Amino acid sequence: MHGEYKVPGGKLVVADLEVRDGRLADVRISGDFFLEPPEALEAINRGVNGMPADSGELELAVAVQSALPADAEMFGFTAESVAVVLRRALA
């Protein structure tokens, strides 16, 4: 599954994923945004893997935010924009 979301005034966020047994699997977030430290992207992917496929944007955004290291900085996108792109991929 594939979804894309252009953040208003920001960057492109892309999600590629699978659904297995009603849960998100093999989630890969990418795009033209900036994220520090770079390993925070893998933390986001791990944070949403295993979430129920029928999770709403709020639950997904909370999972993204919770997965981020304390020192993470997101430029051009937000946890909410990741949730939007995940829901689009699932639609």
UniProtKB/TrEMBL annotation:
Query: Could you tell me the superkingdom of the organism this chain comes from?
Result: Bacteria
What name is this protein filed under? Lipoate--protein ligase
Q: Which organism is it from?
A: Achromobacter agilis
